[in-house]
Amino acid sequence: MSTNSNVSSMQRMVEQLKFEAGIERMKVSQAATELQQYCVQNACKDALLVGLPAGSNPFREPRSCSLL
């Protein structure tokens, strides 16, 4: 039982390594440049940089009831 388990475990590992070897890689410098370009292009849409309009802010303080 242990031998079969060990063999199947090794087969899964080999399949995983084959899968990972087939993944297309890119240089870190290229990925960093693309990430920087993406951030600059989408900075106008970033709520942390631009802020949210007062009416659509889901985190604003709730208003109290005027009937009280």
From TrEMBL:
Transmembrane segments: none annotated. Its main location: membrane. Guanine nucleotide-binding proteins (G proteins) are involved as a modulator or transducer in various transmembrane signaling systems. The beta and gamma chains are required for the GTPase activity, for replacement of GDP by GTP, and for G protein-effector interaction. InterPro entries: G-protein_gamma, G-protein_gamma-like_dom, GGL_sf. Belongs to the G protein gamma family. Keywords: Cell membrane, Lipoprotein, Membrane, Methylation, Prenylation, Transducer. It is found in: Cell membrane. GO terms for molecular function: G-protein beta-subunit binding. GO terms for biological process: G protein-coupled receptor signaling pathway. PROSITE patterns: G_PROTEIN_GAMMA. It is a lipid-anchor. It comes from the Eukaryota. This is Guanine nucleotide-binding protein subunit gamma. The keyword Lipoprotein applies. GO terms for cellular component: heterotrimeric G-protein complex. G proteins are composed of 3 units; alpha, beta and gamma.
